[in-house]
Design goal:
This protein has 125 residues and is mostly beta strands. It is built from no helices and 9 strands. It has one domain. The chain has an 8-stranded antiparallel β-barrel. It starts with a strand and ends with a strand. The mean pLDDT is 94.
């Protein structure tokens, strides 16, 4: 089964990086609030660049002056099962220590505030 990881990232602003393994890479989204653990909580997830699979185990300090400078720690990790994949919707089951159950990533219409970024909603079913 493929993996997922959520890294708490204390950069300029605290956020969580949600990453799922797809096609031998980590598809990644930045979440501005703690990821949802209960149904009905929705979180904005801004798609960011893919990361190498080896990044799934990274914890530590990214030095000042480097992209993403700040402290990174693993908030949750585990395996996941993809249930449905469309260009604007991903449905999957997470099996982590904190995030368990069926989740959805739903692509939103483009927002001019986030130029060049794809905005999604992450929520638990």
């Amino acid at each position: 089964m493929p993996i997922f990881v959520v890294q708490e990232h204390a950069a300029r602003k605290l956020h969580w990086d949600f990453r799922i393994e797809m096609n031998k890479t980590l598809k990644s989204w930045a979440i501005l609030k703690e990821p949802p653990l209960q149904a009905k909580l929705k979180r904005l997830a801004i798609q960011v660049e893919d990361h190498d699979l080896s990044y799934a185990s990274f914890e530590g300090l990214i030095p000042e002056g480097m992209y993403g400078a700040g402290k990174v720690k693993i908030w949750d990790k585990g395996k996941y099962k993809l249930i449905d994949k469309k260009s604007d919707k991903l449905v999957f089951t997470l099996n982590g220590k904190k995030m368990k159950g069926e989740y959805v990533l739903l692509k939103l219409k483009p927002n001019p505030r986030f130029k060049g970024k794809d905005n999604w909603l992450l929520f638990k079913k």
